[in-house]
Design brief:
The structure holds 2 protein chains of 2 kinds. Chain A is of the alpha/beta class. Chain A has 3 helices and 6 strands, in the order αβααβββββ. The longest helix of chain A has 21 residues. Chain B has 4 helices and 9 strands; from the N terminus they run αββββαβββββαα. Chain B is elongated, with a radius of gyration of 21 Å. The chains are: A alpha/beta, B alpha+beta.
Protein backbone atom coordinates (compact mmCIF):
# COMPACT_ATOMS: atom_id res chain seq x y z
CA UNK A 1 0.00 0.00 0.00
CA UNK A 2 1.35 3.33 -1.06
CA UNK A 3 1.85 5.64 1.92
CA UNK A 4 -0.12 8.52 0.41
CA UNK A 5 -3.22 6.31 0.11
CA UNK A 6 -3.50 6.47 3.87
CA UNK A 7 -4.01 10.22 3.70
CA UNK A 8 -6.60 9.89 0.99
CA UNK A 9 -8.59 7.45 3.12
CA UNK A 10 -8.35 9.70 6.15
CA UNK A 11 -9.50 12.59 3.96
CA UNK A 12 -12.49 10.69 2.62
CA UNK A 13 -13.44 9.56 6.12
CA UNK A 14 -13.28 13.15 7.35
CA UNK A 15 -15.54 14.33 4.52
CA UNK A 16 -18.07 11.56 5.21
CA UNK A 17 -18.13 12.28 8.95
CA UNK A 18 -18.52 15.98 8.27
CA UNK A 19 -21.40 15.19 5.90
CA UNK A 20 -23.17 13.04 8.47
CA UNK A 21 -22.67 15.74 11.05
CA UNK A 22 -24.12 18.38 8.73
CA UNK A 23 -27.09 16.24 7.86
CA UNK A 24 -27.88 15.52 11.48
CA UNK A 25 -26.98 18.91 12.80
CA UNK A 26 -29.26 19.87 15.66
CA UNK A 27 -31.82 22.64 15.56
CA UNK A 28 -30.53 25.96 16.74
CA UNK A 29 -30.21 25.79 20.49
CA UNK A 30 -32.18 28.80 21.58
CA UNK A 31 -31.43 28.42 25.26
CA UNK A 32 -27.73 28.90 24.60
CA UNK A 33 -28.05 31.50 21.85
CA UNK A 34 -27.39 35.12 22.64
CA UNK A 35 -30.47 37.23 21.93
CA UNK A 36 -30.19 39.53 18.90
CA UNK A 37 -32.83 41.82 20.38
CA UNK A 38 -34.17 42.23 23.88
CA UNK A 39 -37.45 44.08 24.20
CA UNK A 40 -40.96 44.36 25.60
CA UNK A 41 -43.77 42.42 23.96
CA UNK A 42 -45.68 45.63 23.36
CA UNK A 43 -42.82 47.30 21.50
CA UNK A 44 -42.34 44.29 19.24
CA UNK A 45 -46.04 44.05 18.47
CA UNK A 46 -46.25 47.75 17.67
CA UNK A 47 -43.36 47.51 15.26
CA UNK A 48 -44.96 44.62 13.44
CA UNK A 49 -48.34 46.27 13.37
CA UNK A 50 -47.08 49.55 12.01
CA UNK A 51 -44.35 48.47 9.64
CA UNK A 52 -44.70 44.78 9.04
CA UNK A 53 -42.29 44.49 6.15
CA UNK A 54 -39.56 46.39 7.93
CA UNK A 55 -40.11 44.30 11.03
CA UNK A 56 -39.90 41.13 8.95
CA UNK A 57 -36.53 42.15 7.58
CA UNK A 58 -35.32 43.05 11.03
CA UNK A 59 -36.62 40.21 13.17
CA UNK A 60 -37.38 37.09 11.12
CA UNK A 61 -35.28 34.11 12.26
CA UNK A 62 -33.58 36.24 14.88
CA UNK A 63 -33.33 35.27 18.52
CA UNK A 64 -35.59 37.60 20.47
CA UNK A 65 -35.82 37.96 24.21
CA UNK A 66 -39.28 39.26 24.99
CA UNK A 67 -40.75 40.31 28.32
CA UNK A 68 -44.37 40.93 29.10
CA UNK A 69 -47.42 40.06 31.12
CA UNK A 70 -48.91 36.61 30.57
CA UNK A 71 -52.34 36.94 29.03
CA UNK A 72 -53.22 33.40 28.07
CA UNK A 73 -51.73 29.93 28.22
CA UNK A 74 -52.84 27.24 25.81
CA UNK A 75 -51.87 23.62 25.39
CA UNK A 76 -52.63 21.56 22.30
CA UNK A 77 -53.48 17.86 22.12
CA UNK A 78 -49.84 16.85 21.86
CA UNK A 79 -48.88 18.86 24.93
CA UNK A 80 -47.32 21.74 23.02
CA UNK A 81 -47.51 24.84 25.19
CA UNK A 82 -48.01 28.43 24.03
CA UNK A 83 -47.97 31.53 26.15
CA UNK A 84 -49.51 34.76 24.89
CA UNK A 85 -47.97 37.98 26.19
CA UNK A 86 -50.12 41.05 26.52
CA UNK A 87 -49.45 43.90 24.11
CA UNK A 88 -52.20 46.27 25.13
CA UNK A 89 -54.28 45.05 22.20
CA UNK A 90 -57.49 43.25 23.22
CA UNK A 91 -57.23 40.42 20.79
CA UNK A 92 -53.71 40.02 19.58
CA UNK A 93 -50.47 39.54 21.39
CA UNK A 94 -47.06 37.99 21.14
CA UNK A 95 -47.40 34.22 21.12
CA UNK A 96 -44.46 32.24 22.43
CA UNK A 97 -44.61 28.63 21.34
CA UNK A 98 -42.48 26.72 23.82
CA UNK A 99 -39.84 24.30 22.69
CA UNK A 100 -41.11 20.75 22.32
CA UNK A 101 -40.60 18.54 25.34
CA UNK A 102 -39.57 21.50 27.45
CA UNK A 103 -39.73 21.25 31.20
CA UNK A 104 -42.50 23.79 31.67
CA UNK A 105 -46.13 22.87 32.17
CA UNK A 106 -49.34 24.80 31.92
CA UNK A 107 -49.35 25.32 35.66
CA UNK A 108 -46.07 27.21 35.51
CA UNK A 109 -47.73 30.22 33.93
CA UNK A 110 -50.52 32.28 35.37
CA UNK A 111 -52.36 35.09 33.65
CA UNK A 112 -51.13 38.40 35.00
CA UNK A 113 -47.64 37.35 35.95
CA UNK A 114 -44.53 38.72 34.28
CA UNK A 115 -42.54 36.40 32.09
CA UNK A 116 -39.57 36.55 29.76
CA UNK A 117 -39.01 34.26 26.83
CA UNK A 118 -36.29 33.75 24.31
CA UNK A 119 -37.27 32.37 20.93
CA UNK A 120 -37.04 32.62 17.17
CA UNK A 121 -39.31 35.14 15.51
CA UNK A 122 -41.37 33.61 12.70
CA UNK A 123 -43.46 36.65 11.81
CA UNK A 124 -46.93 38.05 12.29
CA UNK A 125 -50.37 36.77 11.37
CA UNK A 126 -52.74 38.23 13.93
CA UNK A 127 -50.24 37.73 16.68
CA UNK A 128 -46.49 37.99 16.44
CA UNK A 129 -45.24 34.43 16.74
CA UNK A 130 -42.04 33.22 18.37
CA UNK A 131 -41.16 29.54 18.07
CA UNK A 132 -38.83 27.25 20.02
CA UNK A 133 -39.14 29.47 23.05
CA UNK A 134 -37.48 28.93 26.38
CA UNK A 135 -38.37 30.75 29.54
CA UNK A 136 -35.74 33.00 31.07
CA UNK A 137 -35.86 32.77 34.83
CA UNK B 1 -61.49 54.66 34.49
CA UNK B 2 -64.79 53.68 36.01
CA UNK B 3 -66.52 54.40 32.75
CA UNK B 4 -64.07 52.22 30.89
CA UNK B 5 -64.88 49.34 33.20
CA UNK B 6 -68.60 49.85 32.70
CA UNK B 7 -68.20 49.97 28.93
CA UNK B 8 -66.01 46.89 29.03
CA UNK B 9 -68.36 44.85 31.15
CA UNK B 10 -71.19 45.91 28.87
CA UNK B 11 -69.18 44.83 25.90
CA UNK B 12 -68.52 41.48 27.48
CA UNK B 13 -72.19 41.03 28.32
CA UNK B 14 -73.00 41.76 24.70
CA UNK B 15 -70.29 39.39 23.62
CA UNK B 16 -71.87 36.64 25.66
CA UNK B 17 -75.30 37.35 24.23
CA UNK B 18 -73.94 37.38 20.72
CA UNK B 19 -72.18 34.10 21.10
CA UNK B 20 -75.10 31.98 20.00
CA UNK B 21 -75.76 33.96 16.85
CA UNK B 22 -72.16 34.73 15.96
CA UNK B 23 -71.53 34.24 12.29
CA UNK B 24 -67.83 34.72 12.24
CA UNK B 25 -65.59 32.13 13.71
CA UNK B 26 -61.87 32.12 14.02
CA UNK B 27 -58.91 30.30 15.43
CA UNK B 28 -55.25 31.07 15.83
CA UNK B 29 -54.39 27.50 16.77
CA UNK B 30 -55.11 25.78 13.49
CA UNK B 31 -52.93 22.83 12.60
CA UNK B 32 -51.39 22.44 9.21
CA UNK B 33 -49.09 19.57 8.38
CA UNK B 34 -47.63 18.35 5.18
CA UNK B 35 -46.28 15.03 4.13
CA UNK B 36 -44.04 14.21 1.24
CA UNK B 37 -43.76 10.50 0.66
CA UNK B 38 -41.37 9.00 -1.84
CA UNK B 39 -39.63 5.63 -2.02
CA UNK B 40 -36.43 7.48 -1.09
CA UNK B 41 -37.70 9.03 2.11
CA UNK B 42 -40.62 10.60 3.93
CA UNK B 43 -40.61 14.20 5.02
CA UNK B 44 -43.15 15.84 7.25
CA UNK B 45 -43.55 19.19 8.92
CA UNK B 46 -46.10 20.61 11.32
CA UNK B 47 -47.40 24.03 12.17
CA UNK B 48 -49.73 24.55 15.12
CA UNK B 49 -50.29 28.25 14.71
CA UNK B 50 -52.37 28.71 11.62
CA UNK B 51 -54.95 31.47 11.78
CA UNK B 52 -58.30 30.89 10.19
CA UNK B 53 -61.56 32.74 9.82
CA UNK B 54 -64.87 31.26 8.81
CA UNK B 55 -68.00 33.21 7.98
CA UNK B 56 -70.79 30.70 8.40
CA UNK B 57 -73.46 32.70 6.60
CA UNK B 58 -71.59 33.00 3.33
CA UNK B 59 -69.11 30.15 3.63
CA UNK B 60 -66.16 32.48 3.17
CA UNK B 61 -63.03 31.09 4.69
CA UNK B 62 -59.43 32.13 5.12
CA UNK B 63 -56.34 30.42 6.35
CA UNK B 64 -52.97 31.99 6.93
CA UNK B 65 -49.82 30.43 8.23
CA UNK B 66 -46.27 31.53 8.88
CA UNK B 67 -43.94 29.46 6.75
CA UNK B 68 -41.16 29.74 9.31
CA UNK B 69 -43.46 28.19 11.88
CA UNK B 70 -43.23 24.77 10.21
CA UNK B 71 -41.16 22.45 12.34
CA UNK B 72 -39.24 19.60 10.75
CA UNK B 73 -37.50 16.73 12.38
CA UNK B 74 -34.15 17.65 10.86
CA UNK B 75 -32.74 21.14 11.13
CA UNK B 76 -31.16 20.86 7.71
CA UNK B 77 -34.48 20.04 6.06
CA UNK B 78 -36.06 23.03 7.73
CA UNK B 79 -33.22 25.24 6.58
CA UNK B 80 -33.52 24.12 2.96
CA UNK B 81 -37.28 24.40 3.08
CA UNK B 82 -37.08 27.98 4.31
CA UNK B 83 -34.06 29.26 2.45
CA UNK B 84 -34.04 27.44 -0.86
CA UNK B 85 -37.56 26.27 -1.55
CA UNK B 86 -40.12 28.50 0.13
CA UNK B 87 -37.84 31.53 0.55
CA UNK B 88 -39.72 32.34 3.70
CA UNK B 89 -37.90 35.57 4.44
CA UNK B 90 -39.22 36.98 1.19
CA UNK B 91 -42.59 35.25 1.43
CA UNK B 92 -43.28 34.78 5.15
CA UNK B 93 -46.92 33.72 4.81
CA UNK B 94 -48.93 31.12 3.01
CA UNK B 95 -52.53 32.15 2.57
CA UNK B 96 -55.72 30.53 1.39
CA UNK B 97 -58.84 32.53 0.66
CA UNK B 98 -61.87 30.61 -0.44
CA UNK B 99 -65.50 29.75 -0.11
CA UNK B 100 -67.26 26.64 1.11
CA UNK B 101 -69.57 25.55 -1.69
CA UNK B 102 -73.26 25.11 -0.89
CA UNK B 103 -72.83 26.36 2.63
CA UNK B 104 -76.59 26.16 3.16
CA UNK B 105 -76.29 22.40 3.36
CA UNK B 106 -74.32 22.75 6.58
CA UNK B 107 -76.58 23.20 9.59
CA UNK B 108 -74.42 24.97 12.15
CA UNK B 109 -77.16 24.60 14.74
CA UNK B 110 -77.24 20.84 14.54
CA UNK B 111 -74.53 18.41 15.61
CA UNK B 112 -73.11 16.39 12.81
CA UNK B 113 -70.35 15.97 10.29
CA UNK B 114 -70.89 17.64 6.96
CA UNK B 115 -68.78 16.91 3.90
CA UNK B 116 -67.95 20.11 2.03
CA UNK B 117 -66.05 21.30 -0.99
CA UNK B 118 -63.92 24.42 -0.63
CA UNK B 119 -62.82 26.46 -3.63
CA UNK B 120 -60.42 29.31 -3.49
CA UNK B 121 -56.99 30.73 -4.09
CA UNK B 122 -53.85 29.47 -2.43
CA UNK B 123 -50.86 31.76 -2.19
CA UNK B 124 -47.55 30.09 -1.44
CA UNK B 125 -44.09 31.38 -2.31
CA UNK B 126 -45.69 34.50 -3.76
CA UNK B 127 -47.61 32.49 -6.37
CA UNK B 128 -51.40 32.30 -6.30
CA UNK B 129 -53.20 29.28 -7.73
CA UNK B 130 -56.83 28.19 -7.66
CA UNK B 131 -57.37 25.19 -5.40
CA UNK B 132 -60.34 22.93 -4.75
CA UNK B 133 -60.33 20.73 -1.70
CA UNK B 134 -62.68 18.29 -0.04
CA UNK B 135 -63.17 18.68 3.65
CA UNK B 136 -65.48 18.21 6.56
CA UNK B 137 -67.21 20.58 8.90
CA UNK B 138 -68.01 19.10 12.28
CA UNK B 139 -70.53 20.68 14.60
CA UNK B 140 -70.54 19.33 18.12
CA UNK B 141 -72.30 21.02 21.02
CA UNK B 142 -72.22 24.27 19.09
CA UNK B 143 -68.46 24.12 18.50
CA UNK B 144 -67.34 24.17 14.90
CA UNK B 145 -64.29 22.44 13.59
CA UNK B 146 -63.04 21.88 10.08
CA UNK B 147 -60.59 19.52 8.52
CA UNK B 148 -59.35 18.85 5.06
CA UNK B 149 -56.74 16.84 3.25
CA UNK B 150 -55.58 17.79 -0.20
CA UNK B 151 -52.54 17.68 -2.42
CA UNK B 152 -50.33 20.42 -3.76
CA UNK B 153 -47.54 20.24 -6.29
CA UNK B 154 -44.43 22.28 -5.45
CA UNK B 155 -43.96 23.07 -9.16
CA UNK B 156 -47.34 24.82 -9.27
CA UNK B 157 -46.00 27.42 -6.89
CA UNK B 158 -42.79 27.99 -8.75
CA UNK B 159 -40.80 26.15 -6.10
CA UNK B 160 -37.60 25.03 -7.74
CA UNK B 161 -36.18 21.76 -6.60
CA UNK B 162 -32.74 20.80 -7.91
CA UNK B 163 -32.78 17.74 -10.14
CA UNK B 164 -30.44 15.76 -7.86
CA UNK B 165 -32.95 15.79 -5.02
CA UNK B 166 -36.10 15.85 -7.12
CA UNK B 167 -36.78 12.18 -6.38
CA UNK B 168 -36.59 12.81 -2.66
CA UNK B 169 -39.54 15.16 -2.64
CA UNK B 170 -42.99 14.05 -3.70
CA UNK B 171 -44.44 15.51 -6.91
CA UNK B 172 -47.64 15.86 -4.98
CA UNK B 173 -47.36 16.84 -1.33
CA UNK B 174 -50.19 15.89 1.00
CA UNK B 175 -51.48 18.75 3.15
CA UNK B 176 -53.60 18.11 6.24
CA UNK B 177 -55.51 20.99 7.81
CA UNK B 178 -57.43 20.99 11.06
CA UNK B 179 -59.03 23.91 12.83
CA UNK B 180 -61.25 24.22 15.90
CA UNK B 181 -63.10 27.50 15.63
CA UNK B 182 -64.22 29.93 18.31
CA UNK B 183 -66.94 32.51 17.84
CA UNK B 184 -65.62 35.91 16.85
CA UNK B 185 -67.65 38.91 17.83
CA UNK B 186 -66.94 42.55 17.51
CA UNK B 187 -69.26 44.90 19.30
CA UNK B 188 -69.11 48.64 18.77
CA UNK B 189 -67.15 49.52 21.88
CA UNK B 190 -64.14 51.73 21.45
CA UNK B 191 -61.84 49.03 22.81
CA UNK B 192 -62.62 46.95 19.75
CA UNK B 193 -61.42 49.58 17.35
CA UNK B 194 -58.12 47.82 17.05
CA UNK B 195 -59.92 44.93 15.44
CA UNK B 196 -62.20 47.23 13.47
CA UNK B 197 -59.11 48.77 11.93
CA UNK B 198 -58.27 45.41 10.55
CA UNK B 199 -61.46 44.14 8.97
CA UNK B 200 -61.78 40.47 9.58
CA UNK B 201 -61.41 39.49 5.96
CA UNK B 202 -58.48 41.76 5.49
CA UNK B 203 -56.37 41.11 8.50
CA UNK B 204 -54.88 38.11 6.86
CA UNK B 205 -53.32 40.65 4.58
CA UNK B 206 -50.85 39.71 1.95
CA UNK B 207 -47.66 41.63 1.74
CA UNK B 208 -47.20 43.51 -1.48
CA UNK B 209 -44.46 41.58 -3.12
CA UNK B 210 -42.21 42.69 -5.83
CA UNK B 211 -42.18 40.73 -9.01
CA UNK B 212 -42.00 36.99 -8.50
CA UNK B 213 -38.51 35.95 -7.67
CA UNK B 214 -37.11 32.77 -9.08
CA UNK B 215 -33.90 31.02 -8.30
CA UNK B 216 -32.03 29.02 -10.85
CA UNK B 217 -31.62 25.41 -9.72
CA UNK B 218 -27.87 25.90 -9.97
CA UNK B 219 -28.04 28.62 -7.39
CA UNK B 220 -30.07 26.43 -5.10
CA UNK B 221 -27.45 23.75 -5.44
CA UNK B 222 -24.63 26.15 -4.74
CA UNK B 223 -26.51 27.09 -1.61
CA UNK B 224 -26.59 23.52 -0.49
CA UNK B 225 -24.05 23.46 2.33
CA UNK B 226 -22.92 20.04 1.38
CA UNK B 227 -21.85 19.80 -2.19
CA UNK B 228 -18.43 18.31 -2.05
CA UNK B 229 -17.32 14.85 -3.14
CA UNK B 230 -19.56 12.11 -1.87
CA UNK B 231 -22.40 14.58 -1.91
CA UNK B 232 -25.51 13.44 -0.19
CA UNK B 233 -28.75 15.01 -1.16
CA UNK B 234 -29.97 17.39 1.51
CA UNK B 235 -32.97 15.19 2.07
CA UNK B 236 -31.19 11.85 1.93
CA UNK B 237 -32.34 9.38 4.56
CA UNK B 238 -30.67 9.74 7.89
Amino acid sequence: MKPYLKYIFVGIAAVVIFGIYLFNKPHKNVSRAKPDYTMEAKALFTEFEEREEEANTKYLDKVLQISGTVKEVTADDEGGLSVTLDTGNDFFGVVCELQESSKWTREDFKAGQEATFKGLCSGMLMDVVLVRCVRIE
Amino acid sequence: MKRVIVVLSLAFALLGANQASAQKFFTREGKISFFSETPVENIEAHNQKATSVLETSTGQMEFAVLVKGFQFEKALMQEHFNENYLESTKFPKAIFKGTIQEIAKVDFEKDGTYPVVVKGDMTIHGVTKPVTANGQITVKNGAISANSTFNLAPEDFDIKIPAVVRDNIAKSVKVVVKADFQPYTSSGSSKDRAVGDRPIFLFLKTLPHEKPYTIAPVFALANCPFSGPGRRSPFAPG
